Amino acid sequence: MLKIHFTPEDLARTRISAAPQPMWEVLLSVYRLRGREGGAIFEEWRRSVAQAAHVTTRLLADLAPQSGYAVDFITPTLRNLSLSDGLEALRRTPKQRLKADLTVLAGHRRLPAWTSGLAEGRPETLTRLADSVERYFAACLAPYWVRICGRVEQERARQVKMMTEEGCEHLLARVHPTARWNYPVLELDYPVDQELRLNGRGLCLAPSFFCWGLPTTFLDGELEPTLVYPIEHKVGWSVGGGTGRPLTSLLGRTRARVLEVIGERPGTTTEVASRTETSLPTASQQAATLREAGLITSCQNGQSVLHSITPLGLALLAEG
After folding, report:
1. For burial by CB atoms within 10 Å, which of 126, 168, 279, 297 has the most?
2. Fold of 245-319
3. Helix residue ranges per DSSP H, 137-252
């Protein structure tokens, strides 16, 4: 059982993560690759990334055995939720944190030889690990990242509405099917007995695409308190690529494609035109329509206009 102890200050400071956390999704997706949990939900994705995963997950698997403890430092806590910032934080993990986490891991299993360089904080070993994570993300998660973000955003929007209309305690009582809220303690089913005292720091609620079954958190209670928990899924989320027919029918082929490429990553009008193989005036016109519909935002970026997708746009893409 996991027991999380709140104070009034903690309730006021509890928040919902603004977006999926890439490093957590990396870690939890590795578990989904090696296990059979989730059945039909993840099976097509497993098959589609199997070959790439085979050559990119070895270092990650060494630090996150299929059962039991996974090192805390693989999922650094950040307010800026980008993969690049997560990788940079991983490269700069303090030696004390590396040694402490690996000592805990060594109590559960025999560590491979390469982790000795990690325990010593060698920059080249940390870089090797970060590069491995980056290759894994590019091969196994990046092709689906828009859909992953969209589904998480749908759940996040639902929970933000619940918190706004009914309060934080109402949300905590429903954050997971096993949640039991009795102020000042939130209890959840958990693989081991663990207690987390927030002590005024608040709690970051992080809905996760690849979390399955029970929620998870850091072992070290001194790290920023974070509760990662699963969202609901739909079978077939990973099948096919590109924009689905319903979205194309709603927006039109060109406009749907413009929304998709902006969802993949923000871009200037020129970049959007290039990536969608349309003219600059067409890209500008389609972006303006999407902006008026609240699906993207646009802001001046030097001499260019930078377009970014909104949560509503992500949620629409997730439905395809």
Report:
1. 168
2. Arc Repressor Mutant, subunit A (1.10.10)
3. 145-166, 168-173, 245-251
